[in-house]
Automatic annotation (TrEMBL), chains A, B:
InterPro entries for the chain: Aminotransferase_I/II_large, DapL/ALD1, PyrdxlP-dep_Trfase, PyrdxlP-dep_Trfase_major, PyrdxlP-dep_Trfase_small
Name of the protein: Aminotransferase class I/classII large domain-containing protein
HAMAP family xrefs: DapL_aminotrans_1
Keywords: Aminotransferase, Pyridoxal phosphate, Transferase
NCBIfam families reported in the protein's UniProt record: DAPAT_plant
């Protein structure tokens, strides 16, 4: 997905790879606690002798197709390089969509209680059901899909939406075709490449072969022109959208479901930001009549409860969704979950259950409102500076247009001059070129300070 | 893998599937709390109308190759059916290898503390590094691989060995060949089938095409005859072995590493039971000279700390391991981990770190010793009854021979007559036919009661 140059010399045919820009990857100085920057250290330096033993196992050619690094580790790398250059800088990250506010006590208390209970005979539990604990599945079904005909048995609890996207790709296999919004969350395309669903990457157009990129721009209201969209087996669709922050309306989602029904496609609907919706846009694809026969929905507690590190999400695979031969998709997904996964942590699940209690729901709502206030501050800042700004209303992401400029150049300019980390839009696909995604996750004082610096830069 | 008949009528070409044996899957009566039996409810009943909308997406043909259900859910299903038949029976499970003893307080305290800290500004953490927290990686490296040349950066923390096996299969892709011990843990073969590495299943020989089944029997000391083993890209090897409980000696593992070096293969070494070793057998494949250039090792806190529900494991991908083109395997595994996974739960990782403290290591050792006492009781019981019994010395599994009998028949006989759940050996591959795996995970009084019932049955 990544439409940027690899900063290090990594070649699929080379037996060695270089350290980044000459600075050591092993230095502990670039690894502050609780920072993602030490992902630099993630892979140890391999032997660089030509005489090293090599296995006869061929590298998976799909892996070789992947371009450069996954977007967010690449951003972390650039952040670390910046810190080396400016060791005293107060870097503020509005980059990766990582939650920053403490988890409400009603939720962590439940996890602490469950942890402690594991030391008692009565409270101990070992393997849980791979599909998730019954109470949690029931609570998710009733809380988010109460009147939509989605039942407990349709819910598969997971360790997060990204992980489930990958499991869904294993379910579909390598012989399906797929469409994505362009721009979109990189994991859709990258997991598709890994599974062998795509062709090669074409650097001139910044696209992989055999993927339908559904362009989403300000001109089309960030909703693709379905009349010119090729039919594919799978349609990944995220609303509220990451990165554009746009939300599809009821009418638009009705069009999408109709399109999928006519095309015989399966929609994988990512609703990880649905609780940020403050207008009457649908919060679930299953609000659209007929969606249960054409859609899977994946979601997460990450951005609702600050569970990015706790890891808990879910996927809805309705019993009504059938392959062309009539076989239920849920039956195969269940097999994937049982074979390739062993359920989310029981402690995280206790937290999820607390999230869905009356107090938990209120507490989650308060945190979401806090981030939405951040979003408004960021939107106001860029608007006051004369930028065209999108998103932000129903999502914690603000999508800022820098017409005619390279996203990575803007990213570098902002980092260099204000010590702020954003996310370059082109990292989400060619349709993101010329945009920057600004995340509203952050402490209030940091968001205010960031906006102050931006005002100085672009005044 | 499963060499048994599907109990329900599930056809890949049918648009409906029947409920199991006529009893409702939706009854809450068969779903006691904290039981795996409710996996029966995992997939809701699909619409059985021929007029239902079907997508045009073809079912993944690899999924269609899989035989019946994954072994352990199938056992859970039979257990539930037994409970329906004998609602007052005190069923004791020595079946799935699920830990039963409370987690030592030193470990759960750390998890409770980390949970609570997430409610504070200082203690909150969001996304961690996908590869795991630095301190935990370092602690795993020093505790288990201190003098073996394995470094922190070679360690990838995960949510369990089963999950990592699947991620490793994504890494390898569909064009590799693989070998497994026969019998072996079903996830190796099933994930291989899902990834498309295998041919069809041959019901007459209970094997998939294009897999090398390395027969492990009492006659060869449960170590395969490598002189007649076909060369494959990948060799899955588990020691101490699940299900046979046997452990490969240093000499045998030296042979295995030599075989892999000569064949150009990659060994995926599963050491999830290594802490159960009480003799001088190697606890890691990396104790064998030259292994770092040919082996990956996957392991887990599940059976050490009772973390089957907490979910925490790790995989070692040494920097010295190279594909045929010299590209480091770790580099691609890192990409898989970053794209398809988002790290283990931060709370679980806090637990893992506590496990590796001096007090935690002692506490884990005590629990392991408790299970090893259970093992000795079970071994003595079957031995006294005149059975040939294997394993048990270095593993929590006892492998009991019932020559000339079907494993599922023996499983059914024991369940019917003693209300004990075991695991049929044939569920682990054709080489397991005629054996039963008895797990030593259980409360002492249950193990004693189980042995009493077995003595009555087989006296």
């Amino acid at each position: 997905m990544a439409a940027f140059q690899a900063p290090s010399s990594i070649s699929s045919s080379s037996s060695t790879f270089l350290v980044h820009n000459g600075f050591s990857l092993r230095s502990s100085k670039i690894c502050p606690p609780r920072s993602r920057t030490w992902v630099l250290k993630c892979v140890a330096a391999p032997p660089n002798s030509e005489t090293a033993h090599k296995t006869k196992v061929s590298r998976n050619e799909n892996m070789a197709k992947l371009q450069a690094g996954y977007l967010f580790p690449e951003i972390a790398r650039r952040r670390s390089a910046h810190l080396l250059k400016y060791p005293d800088a107060k870097v503020i990250s509005l980059g990766i969509g990582d939650t920053t506010e403490p988890i409400p006590d009603v939720i962590t208390s439940a996890m602490a209680w469950r942890s402690r209970a594991l030391s008692t005979i009565e409270g101990y539990s070992g393997y849980g059901a791979e599909q998730g604990e019954q109470k949690l599945r029931a609570a998710i079904a009733s809380t988010y899909y109460g009147d939509l005909g989605i039942e407990e048995a349709d819910i598969f609890v997971s360790d997060g939406a990204k992980c489930d996207i990958s499991r869904l790709q294993m379910l579909f296999g390598s012989n399906v075709t797929m469409a994505v919004q362009d721009p979109s969350y990189p994991a859709y395309v990258d997991s598709s490449v890994i599974m062998g669903q795509t062709g090669e990457y074409y650097n001139d157009i910044k696209k992989y072969g055999n993927i339908e990129y559904m362009r989403c721009t300000p001109e089309n209201g960030f909703f693709p022109n379905l009349s010119t969209t090729s039919k594919t087996d799978i349609i990944f669709f995220c609303s509220p959208n990451n990165p554009t922050g746009s939300t599809a309306s009821r009418d638009q989602l009705t069009q999408l479901v109709q399109f999928a029904r006519e095309s015989g496609s399966i929609i994988v609907y990512d609703s990880a930001y649905a609780m940020y919706i403050s207008d009457d846009s649908p919060r679930s694809i299953f609000e659209i009549p007929g969606a249960k026969e054409v859609a899977i929905e994946t979601s997460s507690f990450s951005k609702y409860a600050g569970f990015t590190g706790v890891r808990l999400g879910w996927t809805v695979v309705p019993k009504e969704l059938l392959f062309s031969n009539g076989f239920p998709v849920a039956k195969d997904f269940n097999r994937i979950v049982c074979t390739c996964f062993n359920g989310a942590s029981n402690i995280s699940q206790a937290g999820g259950l607390a999230c869905l209690s009356p107090d938990g729901l209120k507490a989650m709502g308060d945190v979401i409102n806090f981030y939405k206030e951040n979003t408004a501050i960021i939107v106001d800042t860029f608007t006051s500076l004369g930028f065209n700004v999108y998103g932000g209303k129903n999502a914690p992401y603000v999508w800022v247009h820098f017409p005619g400029r390279s996203s990575w150049d803007v990213f570098a300019e902002i980092l260099e001059k204000t010590h702020l980390v954003t996310t370059p839009g082109s990292g989400f696909g060619p349709g993101g070129e010329g945009f920057i995604r600004v995340s509203a996750f952050g402490h209030r004082e940091n968001v205010l300070e960031a906006c102050k610096r931006l005002k100085q830069l672009y005044k």
